[in-house]
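In response to a reviewer's request, we include the raw inputs and outputs for one of the modeled complexes. The two entities were modeled together in a single run.
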Amino acid sequence: MFSDGNWAAILLTVKLASIVTLLLLIISTPIAWWLAHTRSRLKSFFEALVALPIVLPPSVLGFYLLLLMGPQGFVGQITQALGIGTLPFTFAGLVVASVFYSLPFVVQPIQLAFENIGENYLEAAATLRASPLDRFFSVAMPLALPGFLTGSVLGFAHTVGEFGVVLMVGGNIPGVSRVVSVQIYDYVEALEYGQAHSLAITMLLFSFVTLLLLYTFNPNRRTR
Amino acid sequence: MSVCADIHARFKLNYAGFALDVDLNLPSQGVTALFGPSGSGKSTLLRCIAGLERAAGSLTVKGEVWQDEKHFLPTHQRPIGYVFQEANLFPHLSVQANLNYGFKRQPHRHDGFSLDEIVDLLGIAHLLDRKPERLSGGEKQRVAIARALAVNPRLLLMDEPLAALDLARKREILPFLEKLHEALEMPVIYVTHAPNEVARLADHLVVLNQGQLQSAGPLNETFSHVELPQQASDAGSAIIEAQITELQPQWHLALASFEGGELWIRDLSFNVGQKVRFQVMARDVSLALTADHSSSIANVLPAVVDQISDGDHPGIAMVRLKIGRNYILSRLTQRSLHSLGLNVGDSVWAQIKSAAIVE
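The model returned the following structure tokens for the whole complex.
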């Protein structure tokens, strides 16, 4: 059904989305916890910052990331000083860009889940000798599990679906940055509609089934 | 306060529209009720003692400083058990796992109750495998009490544990609380706005009003203060702790003796020597200047007028009487008060129509 090129694109996409989702879970958890519990006036500022990728054209996000990670950029200078070189047009660069791009889709469900737990269970745990870290892992995490699941699925699916940021930051290099969405674009450019179709329908089905599973089994929707 | 003042709490807290400012000593034995209307600061005071609320001030418990200007012991390091108004059982854990949660985190695992003893005490053995969502309100609260005991606390704090329950569930739990009262050696601080819970459970009473300490002391003395809002009403009453000293099986009566007097009460299969707590309604106490043994009232006790105040109706007066070391209240009309010519310090005879065991 798929050519070798198509398989490579699919594997690359899955690899990218998996790594990004994993990183996002690690990064988003403390951010979501802070946003859910802070009384700081900076909360709105950081909420807006995290949500930016939802409304920003991917090309804008990609453009600034490109500048930032490029040879003259702040991040680029650091990576060069560390001897890693520059990140644009590498898989690592693509991962970094995707993390920013999909951040709100992971942070927001986890933040919501943390907020829904409220203080009561955490206070009860404190009176039962659980330290703050202990409370987080023994009470907050298990109770927020639905939020973590939703965040993982959305983060993964959203990363699979990105296009603009990939083109800006990653270019179109086979095995490095040629993910499925870029591959489809290539086929259409070359008027190979048949090939484009087989990948496009796969993406369509994947996205729909993912969302269907999410809405069917999301424990958040169950009444407590 | 009279009994060993081993818990000293001084807190100052300002919220919008509410201020708590208390300085009080609590005994380190028995049940102390924090009593007052809603908004009086009693729950906030309890949360300050638990470290769940951070107020300026200090807290010393049995010689250990839990809070002062420099130190603040976080909640999880305080040897307390806490029962919330809502049970707050962890929904992702079974009843057994909820109990284990605190049990395995207690610092000294050998002393104190075993989990089995606690489960027996609260009668929850048949619930252990269930998830909290499958428990009734009363069952949840019993599990919550068991969970608080399972951490082997040295101070048990209870924040209106019955308030969220209906009357039937309250009746279901009160006997367990009374059992706890007898079985526990640790001090208990019990927040409530229900006079009958105070009457049944408390040994000491702290009355709060608008964030301020109104009165504090042993139950009989403090509960019979005529300033307490419910005392001016028809439900005004006094609580007396006594011991059964004699039985009259042919009349089904028992003699309850206390410091300063004795009363015949209906015999509810008492044993001689048994400790009882009974309630004398103010409306069941009438006053006379001479001992009148010709009436049907069997219980006539010498008393001294301690306080006189107005009732909840312009025609009603409340009189607090001292009998030995105990106090009772009498509710009579202003006209009777006037015609008897009563003043504070006068000796009178209190005719007590009936006294009932608290339930």
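As requested, we also summarize the result in words. Chain B touches chain A at residues 50-52, 74-77, 80-82, 84, 86, 88-92, 101-102, 105-107, 133, 147-148, 151 (CB under 8 Å). The domain at 237-357 of chain B is CATH 2.40.50.100 (OB fold (Dihydrolipoamide Acetyltransferase, E2P)).
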